[in-house]
Amino acid sequence: MMEEWIIHTIVRGLALGTPLIWAALGEVYAERSGVVNLGVEGMMVLGAIAAFALAQSTGLPYLGLLVAAGAGAAAAMLHAVLVISLRANQYVSGLALTMFGLGLSALLGRRWEGLPLLATLPEISLLTYGGLALAIVLWFVLYHTRWGILIRSAGEAPAAVDTMGVNVFLVRYLAVAFGGALAGVGGGLLSVAYRPSWTEGMTVGLGWIAIAIAIFASWDPLRAVAGAFFFGALFHLSFRLQTWISPEPLQMMPFAFTILVLALTTRRGRGAQGAPEALGLPYVRGER
Amino acid sequence: MRIGPVELERRPTPSWNWVLTVSALAILLALALAAVIFWSYGVSPLRAYAVIIRGTLLNARALPEIVRNMIPLLLAGVGLVLAFRALFWNIGAEGQILLGATAATWVALFSPVPDGWKLPVMFLAGFIGGAAWGLIPALLRLRFAVNEVISTLMMNYIAVYLVSWLIHGPWKGPEMRGFAFTDAFPEAAQIPVIPGTRIHWLTLLLGIALAIAVAFLLKRTRAGFEIRVQGENADAARYAGIDPARTLLLVMIVAGGAAGLAGVGEVAGIHRRLLDPNQISLGFGYAAIIVAWLARGSPLAVVLTSLFLGIVFASGDVMRVALQMPARVTDVFNGLILFCLIGSERLLYWRVRWAGHP
């Protein structure tokens, strides 16, 4: 009985952990290149409506996810232009992206609200295993390839990358767009796999949790996987325990845990202290 | 840099006129971009803007609605100006508003405070509630180096579920026949409104007074000086012996408290009960970020910028009713305005000068 319960929790943790892992991996790459993108919630929700609209009208959920990746990347490019080229404040730009994404998806998603989706993916799909595999690949790329060195250096010492004759701006643009594409897929997984439907604001804060996962995973793709599944399981528990406890205090739990985990990990001297040196700072050529 | 007959030159500190011009251009650009979005939604942009202008600025009965929306934006916005001046990224005004509303509701419905004292005690409790909610992320940052953007946001979600729990559970009104509200506030716990409108003028005056007080604090007091130095140059602040913990705690007491007052106004001036968190605050806490950013660090300018965002909110209402658009349409405006505003900031530091023919 107890075993069954634990296995069930793990399986459900994988189910909700899947969208989280995709979004968190994307943020890890963007932040490694030196750009904080607080627009994850907005990019996810745009991915969710794009994937749902495509899957609903064509019957092809994988095509939906592909378009979701495109939508996420396009939204991320807005952020990239503002913070990399125009050197706008990264926090404010990300918040603007979240507001814009939530508003635009509600507007464009109006006609899709309440429609059934026949072509769905299972909660634990190819994309779950794909997410795990992606994490390993991204970890390998980040620590053992020239590309990884460039991305990490763009976040640690952009001037040094520039001196090597590599275009810092290009590296950052690519990392932010890639992060947006993954966030889009994460959002798409919500609307075609986890809860096959479209309702406005259906990301309910998962984008922010993905950002927190990137932070307390110390920007390491493999640790981000662990964080995503931990929060997946936590969300599941907050549903399961509703038999005994009223729902609202339980729904609070993942958000309270996020703060708690951040406090504990940064306290031990890891976590936030492993932050890329130039995180959040625009790169200006010829300035130090 | 010379382009034809005009010369572009850098300027270190932009004049107020130039700031105003660039801001106005940014807002116009945002409205133009929003027009594209309306068009793709299937609403003619010209018709949309005609409906908005007729429904807000040209409608005598709608004008008070602008002020009604301005009140919470003003209070929360003044607080955020202070927080941003100290470089503390408080994204938690939304949660602080809700906690202010909650604390005021407790005083209104469950405390033994005599009638004559109810309103003042509610405002006080709301201030304390919002301040306490804002102090938690400040302490977490000081003690555990927790990033305040994430923690203040998480506190928003926690506040939403807290209010939601109260109205479904312990505070659910027996008179409400199964609806998830508290009972209505007694008359002594309601803020008076200007007859025929929803302008609870007491809260409005409080907001204006607070804007003046914060302007005075920043300009003329030692604590304000310390906040400014802390925000502009943390290293200089450390050499000058300024205690970062003290300034941050002061900032978040005022910022959280101000948002808390906004929450009091919403429940005691508009709804007269505690209800669904998404109805108590229509996203005022997030929009207040734009209010503060648009004010460029000046608490007094918040009076104008909150009025402007009040127009945006009133427009959202008009579009929801007249054009059957979802309520979140205000978020489209808000996001675009913020994008254009920060995107145009580079322009502030350039001056265009007529240099004659080459």
Written account of the structure:
The complex is a heterodimer of chains A (288) and B (358). The model of chain A has no long low-confidence stretch (mean pLDDT 92). Chain A has helices at 2-32, 40-58, 61-85, 90-108, 126-144, 146-156, 158-163, 168-194, 206-216, 221-240, 247-267. Chain A has one domain: ABC transporter involved in vitamin B12 uptake, BtuC (Orthogonal Bundle). Chain A is globular, with a radius of gyration of 19 Å. The longest helix of chain A is centred in the N-terminal third of the chain and has 31 residues, at 2-32. By secondary structure, chain A is mainly alpha-helical. Chain B has 358 residues and is mostly helical. Chain B has two domains: 1-43 and 326-358, no CATH class; 72-324, ABC transporter involved in vitamin B12 uptake, BtuC (Orthogonal Bundle). Chain B is 69% helix and 3% strand. In chain B, a hairpin with a 2-residue loop joins strand 1 and strand 2. The mean pLDDT of chain B is 93. Chains A and B meet through helix 3, helix 4, helix 9 and helix 11 of A and helix 1, helix 5, helix 6, helix 12 and helix 14 of B.
Number of domains of chain A: 1
CATH topology of the largest domain in chain B: ABC transporter involved in vitamin B12 uptake, BtuC
Radius of gyration of chain A: 19 Å
For the termini of chain A, the CA-CA separation is 61 Å
Q: How would you spell out the order of helices and strands of chain A?
A: HHHHHHHHHHH
- Estimated helix fraction of chain A: over 70%
The CATH topology assignment of chain A is ABC transporter involved in vitamin B12 uptake, BtuC
If helices are DSSP runs of H or I spanning 4 or more residues, what is the number of helices of chain A?
11
Q: In CATH terms, what is the architecture of chain A? A: Orthogonal Bundle
How confident is the prediction overall: mean pLDDT of chain B?
93
How are strands sequenced across the largest beta sheet of chain B? 1-2-3
